[in-house]
Amino acid sequence: MKVSPSLLSADFADLRKDIEMINASECDYLHLDVMDGVFVPNISFGFPVMKAVSKICDKPLDVHLMIVEPQKWIPQVRDLGAEIMNVHQEACLHLHSCVQQIHAAGMKAGVTLCPATPVATLTDIIEDLDLVLLMSVNPGFGGQPFIRHTLRKVEELRALRDATGSKAEIEIDGGVNLNTGRELADAGAEVLVAGSYVFGADDPKATIAALKAL
Ligand code: DX5
Ligand code: ZN
């Protein structure tokens, strides 16, 4: 299993310590949650903070934009050196064009679905995607309980991928712990985002290793 710890639950007063933990851990990505107070009812951090983080983080960046009109910010995300740029289906009027622009900027394109958005909405774009991020909580806050119908959506997404030959990775975000992680692994998830479960643990590095082993 790939693991993408979410910086949202890190200690913002001592980010260097948490990034050093991330660098020393087995995780595959660092997940960065950007919120604008419009698309979601919260504001997290923006480009100046992510720029500082990118300078000391050795892991590929998995940027999750919970903002309206994410296509406006493609150059700024590229300038972070991000590996993956995730945009919400619900926030993009012209999703296909946005994905094309992300690719033209040299990044992998991920599309994120809120809990109420059906997998079937990706039918005509799945072949163009490098990743699909399924939200298993409503976006905006860490520490919420896992929404169980996500397990069914993971299976639906796997079936859609198999039917189309798409290579999109299946990533899940929200309420991930060892128990829900095991169920997600069985359903076919390939990347797990985990915020509060990792950064709230007594031993975050060992927690990342345990999620990796799923
Ligand atoms: C929520 C964010 C998540 C958040 C997950 O809107 O997209 O990445 O950090 O937090 P946990 O793992 O605590 O549910
Ligand atoms: Zn996220």
Give a quick rundown of the structure.
Helix content is 35%, strand content 19%. With 214 residues, it is α/β, with parallel strands linked by helices. Strand 4, helix 4 (95-104) and strand 5 (108-113) form a beta-alpha-beta unit.
List the helices and strands and how they pair.
Elements: E1 2-5, H1 15-24, E2 30-35, H2 47-56, E3 61-66, H3 74-79, E4 84-88, H4 95-104, E5 108-113, E6 131-135, H5 150-164, E7 169-173, H6 178-187, E8 191-194, H7 196-199, H8 204-212
Parallel strand pairs: 1-8, 2-3, 3-4, 4-5, 5-6, 6-7, 7-8
Bound molecules: D-xylitol-5-phosphate and zinc ion.
Residues 6, 8-9, 31, 33, 64, 137, 139-144, 173-176, 193-197 line the site of D-xylitol-5-phosphate.
Give the biggest beta sheet.
8 strands, parallel
Uncertain stretches of 5 or more adjacent residues: none
Task: Give the structural class.
Answer: alpha/beta
Percent strand equals: 15-25%
In total, the number of strands is: 8
Write out the strand line-up for the largest beta sheet, numbering strands in chain order: 1-8-7-6-5-4-3-2
How many individual helices? 8
Rg calculated over all Cα atoms: 16 Å
Helical content stands at 25-40%
Report how far the terminal alpha carbons are from each other: 6 Å
